[in-house]
Design goal:
By secondary structure, the chain is an all-beta fold. Helix content is about 0%, strand content about 50%.
Length: about 160
């Protein structure tokens, strides 16, 4: 389960059975439409640099562009997502493997130098940099690579 507030102030709720939104105090389940995320567990949201957001489900990544939904494949169900200031999307699968994707049209690639389950959470830091956290500490992700340690040892 995850929560996300979009640019218009709508709160989106990712649940084990799909998406819902809260708008003007009214909770509404997502209506069926082509490529819309429906009837599956959803784990993570990420704001989209170009507007809208990404949401990760068990069957892939769903992107709300502000005008409609787009679905794309992922290497596995994602438990964490974050998009940096340049539009590179990072994800961590439920198997603990970290991936990055330079643009929405390019494939996911595994993050080098990262052991499975080294990271379990992603968030945006200052200047829309991606921070990754796990038992070994907090690190920055940059250009598809593990950057400096904010605290902790090596990834």
């Amino acid at each position: 389960v995850a929560l996300h507030e979009d640019e218009q102030g709508v709160v989106w709720i990712a649940t084990m059975g799909g998406l819902a939104k809260v708008e003007r105090g009214i909770v509404e389940r997502l209506r069926p439409s082509p490529d819309a995320p429906m009837n599956e567990p959803f784990n993570a949201f990420a704001s989209r640099r170009l507007g809208g957001f990404h949401v990760a489900g068990t069957s892939g990544l769903f992107t709300w562009t502000g005008f409609g939904w787009r679905r794309s494949d992922t290497p596995g169900p994602m438990m964490a997502l974050a998009e940096d200031g340049r539009g590179r999307l990072y994800g961590i699968t439920t198997a603990g493997v970290a991936y990055s994707r330079p643009t929405e049209d390019e494939p996911w690639t595994p993050m080098p130098e990262v052991e499975p389950f080294a990271f379990e959470a992603l968030t945006l830091g200052p200047q829309r940099t991606v921070l990754a956290g796990g038992l070994r500490g907090v690190f920055s992700f940059d250009e598809g690579r593990v950057g400096a340690a904010m605290c902790g040892g090596s990834p």
